[in-house]
Amino acid sequence: MSKKYVYDFSEGSREMKDLLGGKGANLAEMTNLGIPVPDGFTITTEACIEYGQLGNRFPEGLKEEVDGYLAGLEGKTGKKLGDPENPLLVSVRSGAKFSMPGMMDTVLNLGLNDDSVKGLAKKTGDERFAYDAYRRFIQMFGKVVMEIEGHLFEDVLTEAREKAGVNFDSELTPEQLKAVEEKFKSILEKETGRSFPADPREQLDLAIQAVFRSWGNPRAVTYRRHYNISDDLGTAVNVQLMVFGNMGDNSGTGVAFTRNPSTGEKEIFGDYLTNAQGEDVVAGIRKTKKLADMEQEMPEVFRQLVDTMRKLEQHYREMEDIEFTIEKGKFYMLQTRDGKRTAAAAVKIASDLVEEGLITKEEAVAKVDPGQLDQLLHPMIDPDAEFEVLTTGLNASPGAAVGKVVFDADTAEEKGKAGESVILVRWETSPDDIHGLIMAQGVLTSHGGMTSHAAVVARGMGKPAVCGAEQIHIDDKEKRFSVNGTVVREGDIISIDGTTGKVIQGAVDLVPQQINENFQAIVAWADEIRKLSVRTNADTPEDAIKAREFGAQGIGLCRTEHMFMQEDRLPIVRQMIMSESSEERKSFLDKLLPVQQADFEGIFEAMHGLPVTIRLLDPPLHEFLPDYTEVMVDLERARLTGAPAVEITEKEKLAGRVRALKEMNPMLGTRGCRLGIQWPEIYEMQVRAIMRAAVEVSKKSGDDPQVEIMIPLVGYAEELHMMRELAVKTCDEVLVRAGVKIEYLVGTMIELPRAALTAGHISDYADFFSFGTNDLTQTTLGFSRDDAEGKFLTFYLEEGIVKYNPFETIDINGVGRLVELAVKESRQKKPGIKLGVCGEHGGEPASVKFCHRVGLDYVSCSPFRVPLARLAAAQAVLEEKKMMYTTA
Length: 888
Known about the structure:
Layout: E1 6-8, H1 17-32, E2 40-43, H2 45-53, H3 62-77, E3 80-81, E4 87-88, E5 90-96, E6 106-110, H4 116-124, H5 127-145, H6 150-164, H7 174-192, H8 200-214, H9 218-226, E7 235-241, E8 252-257, E9 269-274, H10 278-282, E10 289-290, H11 291-297, H12 299-316, E11 320-327, E12 330-338, H13 343-355, H14 361-367, E13 379-381, E14 388-392, E15 394-397, E16 400-406, H15 409-417, E17 422-426, H16 434-439, E18 442-445, H17 453-461, E19 465-467, E20 473-475, E21 480-483, E22 486-489, E23 493-497, E24 502-505, E25 510-512, H18 517-529, E26 533-537, H19 541-549, E27 555-559, H20 561-564, H21 570-578, H22 582-607, E28 611-615, H23 628-640, H24 645-661, H25 673-678, H26 680-701, E29 706-711, H27 717-738, E30 744-750, H28 753-757, H29 759-762, E31 768-771, H30 773-781, H31 785-790, H32 792-799, H33 815-829, E32 834-837, H34 845-853, E33 858-861, H35 866-887
Parallel strand pairs: 3-4, 16-17, 17-18, 18-19, 26-27, 26-33, 27-28, 28-29, 29-30, 30-31, 31-32, 32-33
Antiparallel strand pairs: 1-2, 2-7, 5-6, 5-7, 8-9, 8-11, 9-10, 11-12, 13-25, 14-24, 15-19, 16-23, 20-21, 21-22, 23-24
């Protein structure tokens, strides 16, 4: 039996998103619910995948299957594709499993030619409407299917309006539109070398192929990479009966959300236009109307819209984003999907849906994207700041941003990658601007509404956006915009407030946004579900306090080298390094001991008895000394200027020490435990400072600090054995002298492949392992992070050699297998060993879920990523339960 590639809307359901894409599955679901949906059928994602595998050719049997379903559609409607008397017109739209708004292609009004347009005019009694539909079709077909530059068609339209003395396309007469269409056909023939295809069946095949190809277009690829969507899914194609919102004032089209996607408030939110087609709303070409206006303008249609929105939200138990069209007073639904929303809206909607009894707490936790929570921590404009408002637009996406003005996406990307903060200013963004939007701090447009491309994409990315600021006049050629007499040029700094819609001249002070009760409710529910503990990486009491506010359950990594780098200590550290004997070195370490102790006391006090993992000195000693080239230049200058002999001798001594410590590859040189083994007095001082601090805090506050001493860069069991003996001896000396009892652990960081491969042996001397996945990734892949991310890794991502940046998301098949092996072997040898991760991956949602799956006890991340990790850890439990239920 041949594979089925096509499904009528009546044959599908919402559960078939993998096959029918999100749009097709939801059109089928609405059809089954009895909601008015124009008839149509869906070509599967499998057909798209096979089309690509076959070198952009239809799989066998697809064309014949489309013919059969097209005949069925003609039978249902009584219309026929290309019929000169009663033509069937269809839309051809993309629809992947995951929503990718505007990233792929759409063709409307397909089926028109020089003959069928006359039939449409006769059937509708509206010649102007028919020829406007034909004009739109040729223009869209030429741009999308034949890949002709869009401005060539726009230039013809502009010329036609100027010649006719009108402002809008809708004011052009049928005869003027016919002239435009002839010019459009000439452009098509000139640019492609072939005439406009008059055969509607050929038009349909070409349009389907164009949608299939659009899965691989640059903006779609960029979008998938940003949102970690697989390139292997393909897009479905939806072929649907056209309904027209541009058939007079009793027709229209709109986009709506069942709740406010910016705030999450339970209110109808959206825009519509009368006498317009769908692209007019999202393109920002005409000023849209608020949905509330429809209640007065079309009361019966408004009632149907509200009833449908309520029905869909109850059915999907989710905030829905819908598209609708009204044709001569009749209401049609064209799409529903889970609505994109800000993080603030996401947590409010999830929390409210629980209160309304529509979903459970577990479902609420599963609905919120951990990555979105960053938005809640974004800066806002300081309420006490004074500033000059240039103009006000629509508050399309909340938050505030400050940056240099740029006028195109390429410049935004270039400057953003160079570390500059930029605001992308456009008349309106399009899907082709996605790469610039990703790198910009925020976006400002002079046209478009709350559901325009810029607004929807910015909300999804958590970036502030001000849209529809119509007083702004943009001059792209001169790279400037003017507003109310003020000229702002590229490179000038502006601020935008996406919460209020204000556009501000110059930089404005920003303050962090406060976390609200909805946020607290979601992460509290997550805490009830998750099994992983979440700790923080903190080197100061201030970081520790902030992390505790975010719910950290301890410190998984305290890096002591940062303490050595402080200005008042660095001279002592350098003197210690320059010492020629162990006794001399100890004399300087004795000076460092009390300041280290004070550091640790502050951290223990901040954590109030929660576990604190302190990593002993890790970097090579030369990092604390001046650069060798600078030292040699300074020495030569002293010699040439006749400096005193004593001074020159000291400089020669410094140069010799720097040269002696200098290494070709210091990352793999004398650092970590190798340093402690050669100069044990350094580690002995640090351990003594840690335990003295623990004793003092215990006496002062009554808290019993949970001390965890971590030996870095262990590759051999004997290395840890030696360092453990030193640590235990020192700890016990301090505790005996103080006459107190404090529990402590000694463990190591697993950051070398050999350590992971021999974890069973190393566990003989370890109370805990913490996987240092930053260095483990470098040593496993042979990637220098600094070099890879700035050079070849970007190319690898673009070429698909790697799917994700392995320094952001853990390399499961490589690094992950080492972690898994180490977990298995260490637990077999020592079942009670505590296992965690303390690299940057500890706060990345997909990596956190991996840590849950392999059985770690905790993850540790930067303070501001603690809430993300808490939520991701809970979702890992829920996904595991779902998987068990599915396979049962």
